[in-house]
Write a structure and sequence with these properties.
Blueprint lengths: L1 H20 L7 H22 L4 H22 L11 H20 L13 H4 L3
Length: about 130
């Protein structure tokens, strides 16, 4: 159940982010910096909801990021009218964002907080 909720939360954030990103000129530095951060934000929200995400969920989440960035590029470049399409760098950074989403989600499987070791009274009192 958590996996489905994590995917749904990630998809909602990806859609909202796509609407916002679509209003900007998505080429050059904006794509290089913004797209991977977009992927990391989606992955982090999904980790917050789903805790440990399965590989299948991460793949689906990466595809959601690709779809969201495609939507953002579509809006940003005037619905691809008049043979105006995004530069190759923007498409490369879409792939980088998907990879960042998967990598961040996968690393989240190992970086969850571990329970603290219970302390004893003798350790807490100064000698």
């Amino acid at each position: 159940m958590r996996q489905a909720l994590a995917l749904l939360a990630g998809a909602a954030l990806a859609l909202a982010g796509a609407v916002v990103l679509g209003e900007y000129d998505l080429q050059g530095t904006t794509a290089v910096v913004g797209f991977p951060l977009y992927g990391l934000a989606v992955a982090e929200l999904a980790l917050a909801v789903g805790r440990r995400l399965a590989a299948a969920t991460l793949v689906a989440l990466s595809l959601v990021v690709v779809a969201g960035l495609y939507l953002a590029l579509w809006v940003s470049f005037g619905h691809f009218r008049n043979d105006v399409s995004p530069p190759v760098l923007s498409w490369v950074m879409v792939a980088a964002a998907a990879a960042a989403t998967f990598a961040w989600g996968w690393s989240g499987r190992r970086r969850r907080a571990r329970p603290a070791r219970p302390s004893t009274v003798s350790e807490e009192l100064p000698s």
